[in-house]
Amino acid sequence: MRKRPARQPFPEHLPRERVVEPAPTACHCCGGHRLRKLGEDITETLEVVPRQWKVIQHVREKFTCRDCEAISRAPAPFHATPRGWAGPGLLAMILFEKFGQHQPLNRQAERYAREGVP
Fold it and tell me: What is the mean pLDDT of the chain?
């Protein structure tokens, strides 16, 4: 069985934008409205605004139903690539530089590393 590689966290110096997804209003099992916050899942996506890097945090709060003890939360946000961490703007920039500007991926990676994004 292969061990999955661990993804490195994004650098702490990058600004974070926190987007809180709307929480469920009723239990998906019993329809009860007595929900209590249990925790939250945070999915980070690396995005680039022309020559400015930022990390967008999509927060999905978890709630537990007081009646049936089921856990409810909002659906996961859409990603351009499954289980991916790159946002659509970053993917567009990488593809344009590779195919439009004929910039190899290793040179792009070196430039991004100089800008503080490994």
Answer: 87
